[in-house]
Design goal:
alpha/beta; Rossmann fold; 5 strands
Length: 197
């Protein structure tokens, strides 16, 4: 699972990274909310773990911006904070957080929350990847067949916005199957853009 961690405290950032890496997750780090937001499109995290109180874009602001995007609306977000009142938790949840952890965070508690996030996000994602891999298997070696197979998969999904987000979110599967064939990936990105119009 891809986990994006945002915290302006380098020690807390390394602590969270060590827990996630020990669970075999792929991790990207950001020291600001702005840096985390910039990584969302390229890293395409399944889970975002963010400190609430950061200078500039706070963790709660990051939640709101992530929730505003079509492709990131389903991303699981964990906010952790020293703010511990029920009102604080409600504010974070109201901004789009799926879970709120109160500092200091025990490794076991953080691990449990990451396992929960994985069940919620990757349970669906694994079946989505199976659908996508089947579409790739149906395609021949040329771009037209590949795009047609992906278009059929796309059109078979009920919600076009979710389907487009699914295709964009799983582009890494296409890249893995196609290898270093950058031209085909460019064609695919263009086809996905055309399908979304």
């Amino acid at each position: 699972m891809r986990v994006l961690i945002a915290d302006d405290d380098p020690i807390a950032l390394l602590y969270a990274q060590s827990v996630a890496v020990a669970l075999d997750h792929e991790v990207a780090l950001a020291e600001t909310g702005e840096a985390a937001l910039a990584l969302v499109d390229s890293f395409q995290p399944h889970v975002i773990v963010t400190d609430w109180l950061m200078p500039g874009l706070s963790g709660v602001d990051l939640c709101q911006q992530v929730r505003a995007g079509d492709a990131t609306r389903e991303t699981y977000i964990i906010v952790y904070t020293a703010l511990s009142t029920p009102e604080d938790r409600l504010e974070a949840l109201g901004a789009g957080a799926d879970d709120v952890l109160i500092k200091p965070i025990a490794a076991e508690d953080f691990e449990a929350r990451l396992h929960l996030a994985e069940r919620v996000t990757c349970g669906a994602s694994a079946s989505d990847e199976t659908v996508l891999r089947a579409a790739l298997a149906r395609s021949a070696s040329n771009d037209a067949d590949l795009v047609r197979a992906l278009a059929e998969t796309y059109q078979s999904r009920e919600d076009r916005v979710k389907a487009r987000a699914f295709m964009r979110r799983h582009l890494h599967v296409v890249e893995a199957v196609l290898g270093d064939s950058h031209e085909r990936v460019k064609h695919l990105r263009g086809a996905l853009s055309a399908l979304g119009d």
